[in-house]
Model the fold of this input.
Amino acid sequence: MKYLVVIGIALVSFASCVTKTKKEETVKNSASESSEKRDTGGLKICFYNQDSLQIHFKYFREQDSIITKKQLAYQNKIQRKSQDLQNYIIKYEERAKANLLSQNEAMQMQQAAQQKEQAIMQLQQTEGARLEEETYNKMEVIGNKIEFFAAKYSEENGIDLFLVHARGGQFKYIHSSMDVTKEFTEYLNQHQDDLVGYIEK
Done:
């Protein structure tokens, strides 16, 4: 009777091992199939660093310099007008405290200060908004043309997937072996005249 119990336990244990082995093989096969589905199939994937491109791509740097100079000129103009308004208000307050203004003069100075303030606001709404729009449009056009030449570069170099790596972007890490920033920047600089033509259109 004891032998039958031992044999029974052995059979159950053996069956359990067989079942476990089959389950492991099933999981292994499933994982293998999953890996095959994720196989890139030998795709050539590259990327360029956007921050580096903005520094070393000559045309981008030139356009950015032009916009920066316009922005500085605009900021200086706003600052001068704001300082002029502030000086005018200080002068008005000093004369008012010294009782050197008639009621009519006080009203005239208040109106003049309001006109100066309105002129600053008008400048911000017109010239400031125009400069902001010009900056946005120029950067958008340059971005579109870089995208156009990225497609040409990819076709000429057999790249299947060309990514943009930027700080705060979607891709947090890409292996350096896929980095073609230097080569792509040189390509853009070589085709700079073509890029200018496309932008002017």
The chain has six helices and two strands. Residues 103-156 form the longest helix (54 residues). Confidence is low (pLDDT under 50) at residues 1-39.
